[in-house]
């Protein structure tokens, strides 16, 4: 009987922990508010009246569904500002199509990659027609203004010849419109073929004048032909952009703070940054830039959803990329979110999201 208290105490310590293991209100995880920075980049992040959606947003929600996370979204105008906010802790996480790079990984923590992409080039498809492209090329090069001066000189020459012929040639048509039409034909014929059948009313002086006009006409024909040929050649070359090597000397549109901007800077190419792809595409349609370099997934989705725009994605992928979510360095959420992303990849949820948001093979 003396051992009974000892056994009772022993039993209490052995079983006491199990009794305390029963769920209590104190054991229920408290929801943690996570400030999530987003950058609108269809189809990964879409903005609507109810907030934000898209492949990246939905994947984020699935990956944090059982982590007692309450997301408060904050939009940023470009990826550079977004990355800066994550790095200095103004937001806890970055959700968009963020490319994982060594430079970025030195300031933030990345999750398991969940999407493969790469850089490609988007160019104008010249859907308005070759004649319109030729006309615009001649105008931009200043040739149309020169053509106008040549036409004006020919009209003045026609008027002067008509005045002289009416006074000196008794057989010349008396009506102005017939006389002007007759001499306009002679002027154009002489300028284009070097031949004319009109009378010589000024003797040897007239012949010298015709010879000088013939020399001028040869120069005019050579100039017109060379200018049109050069513009057509330049227009043809502009449609042959297929790689970074084809972008030398051209203004290229990129998204501000993107990997594409950093990549082109390495090659010292002329860049024009835009906050969003639709702004860069608008500049390309207006021919303010020669091409746009961006992630292939972004470019292909844009052209797929804007078939009315004269834009084409050309060439092969010339830089591989992987997307991931970013956290402030040292975040306790990095590992659990990565594990859940891996699980969503293994059970096919990521592929389902990709198929649903793209609707075609990205």
Automatic annotation (TrEMBL):
Matching Pfam families: SBP_bac_3
Keyword Lipid biosynthesis recorded: no
Topological category with respect to the lipid bilayer: Multi-pass membrane protein
Ranges in coiled-coil conformation: none
GO cellular component, one term: membrane
Keywords, ordered alphabetically: Glycoprotein, Ion channel, Ion transport, Membrane, Receptor, Transmembrane, Transmembrane helix, Transport
Main subcellular location: membrane
Keyword tRNA-binding assigned: no
GO molecular function, one term: ligand-gated monoatomic ion channel activity
Protein's cellular compartments: Membrane
Annotated protein name in UniProt: ABC transporter substrate-binding protein
């Amino acid at each position: 009987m003396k051992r009974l208290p000892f056994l009772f105490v022993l039993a209490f310590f052995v079983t006491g922990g199990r009794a305390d293991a029963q769920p209590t209100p104190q054991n229920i995880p408290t929801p943690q508010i996570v400030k999530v920075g987003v950058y609108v980049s269809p189809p990964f992040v879409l903005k609507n009246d109810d907030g934000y959606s898209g492949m990246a947003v939905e994947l984020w929600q699935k990956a944090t569904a059982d982590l007692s996370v309450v997301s408060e979204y904050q939009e940023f105008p470009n990826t550079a500002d977004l990355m800066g906010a994550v790095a200095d802790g103004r937001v806890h996480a970055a959700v968009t199509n963020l490319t994982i790079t060594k430079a970025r990984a030195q300031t933030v923590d990345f999750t398991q990659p969940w999407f493969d992409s790469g850089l490609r080039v988007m160019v104008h498809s010249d859907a308005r027609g070759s004649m319109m492209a030729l006309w615009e090329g001649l105008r931009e090069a200043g040739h149309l203004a020169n053509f106008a001066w040549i036409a004006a000189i020919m009209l003045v020459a026609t008027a002067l010849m008509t005045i002289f012929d009416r006074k000196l040639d008794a057989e010349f048509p008396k009506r102005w419109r017939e006389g002007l039409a007759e001499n306009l034909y002679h002027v154009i014929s002489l300028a284009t073929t070097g031949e004319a059948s009109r009378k010589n009313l000024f003797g040897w002086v007239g012949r010298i004048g015709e010879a000088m006009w013939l020399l001028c006409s040869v120069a005019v024909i050579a100039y017109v032909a060379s200018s049109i040929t050069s513009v057509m050649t330049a227009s043809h070359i502009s449609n042959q952009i297929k790689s970074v090597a084809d972008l030398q000397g051209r203004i290229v549109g990129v998204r501000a703070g993107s990997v594409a901007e950093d990549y082109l800077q390495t090659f010292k190419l002329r860049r024009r940054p835009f906050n969003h792809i639709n702004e860069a595409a608008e500049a390309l349609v207006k021919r303010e830039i020669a091409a746009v370099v961006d992630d292939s997934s972004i470019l292909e989705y844009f052209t797929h959803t804007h078939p009315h725009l004269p834009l084409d994605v050309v060439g092969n992928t010339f830089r591989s990329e992987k997307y991931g979510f970013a956290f402030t360095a040292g975040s306790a959420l990095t590992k659990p979110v990565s594990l859940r992303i891996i699980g969503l990849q293994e059970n096919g949820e990521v592929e389902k999201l990709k198929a649903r948001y793209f609707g075609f093979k990205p």
